[in-house]
């Protein structure tokens, strides 16, 4: 199909009020309107709303499946449990897909956990901490598992907002296509007026196809990059919390720092996990599965490791290494992206822009010479 409406077939008539049709033939205003529309289309097409929208839709399906699998359910949580999850992730039973802790573990809210840890004296007494470490590890596993569901739910909602924005841009682009195809049909009757016009339009369609495929991949890298940046930021905040904890004397305050640190680290690891899901064919440099497992282990035993100096120092080393490598991974991804896909996309977009401009100028010339 000729014209710019490559992503939407239409033979819609021109907007009579906008085109100001006259029996004497196309006026200069109509040709100028074609040029303005084509420039708008080229600019909006460069953001690849259609291909990016398809990627975002696939990502939403992926996230939805991941969250449902974690819930161990076919659908979402009952509404009352969803509200409890929002209020306190420790109060909800984990379901079949979750860790099989006992009822005390699954129903102990975070505020009671803090009081319990304080009452048992585990924050400042290594012997007492050792006695209760398995119990508190179970509490942590339940809390972190449910926190994972909450984080994936938030990520899902965020992506739905992104999709909404892309859908609006895509709808706007299709409206422009309809308007422009109407102008072209009115002036030329829907046929190519010169062989050159036909040749440039064919080249432009091929170039657009290449650019759009790269645009789809661009959205995948964008998702991964944003998630890695979030993972790196959370790991840095978590490490600061953990280091400050050593200087705090009050047991309750120490515990609060530890719980904040645990949540931040878990958020970082969920962001990292999601980043890997978003870009499965790219192996993230500097970040090993073994290192992530080490951080997860430390996070589970975080509360009872505070009182043990050797364990605290070991956890500090694990967190410090993770934070440094997380930062390196994030930097590496953006550098790799800028050296590869970004350059390929920019080259493809330059080709599309050049061909679109050539076609626009040629049509401006031949349309202006038409006497209908």
From TrEMBL:
It comes from the Eukaryota. GO terms for biological process: positive regulation of apoptotic process; positive regulation of autophagy. Keywords: Coiled coil. Residues 156-213 form a coiled coil. Residues 1-26 are annotated as: Disordered. GO terms for cellular component: Bcl-2 family protein complex; cilium. Residues 7-26 have a biased composition (Polar residues). The keyword Coiled coil applies. This is Uncharacterized protein.
